[in-house]
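Sequence of YdhG-like domain-containing protein (Blastococcus mobilis).
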Amino acid sequence: MITLPGRTGDSGRPPGESDGWDELLVQLSPEVAALVSAADELVRRTDPEVVRVVWPHQKTVGYGVGPKKMSEHYAYLAVHPRHVNLGCNYGAHLGDGGLLEGTGQNMRKMTVRSVEALDDARLVPLLRAARRERLTALGRA
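Predicted 3D structure, token representation.
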């Protein structure tokens, strides 16, 4: 379930074959679908070459420098009934300016309850840093 890099709005798949994006959105309330779409737009605008992987059944979306969830992904969306978590897979290793929460060894997230929350000036630099961290960790920097 991958959207190819640099193909915003087009998965590069044959007609009729889906990457799971529409299947995800149709499950959501209009308010939460708007949050998911706005967060997706932010990530894809920040990194036009991002690889997006959608898991509609789990209501999650991964973003990375490749399709591998555990090694190449640097950000994710986790969809809940009234909010969306926008997280960084290795956020514990990033300077986030107090934006992210969590106590795990690697993952950190912010809770998004409004589209306006995605206007936080710390988000774009954080997403860029998360991408750089993955490229460096994978020896691709």
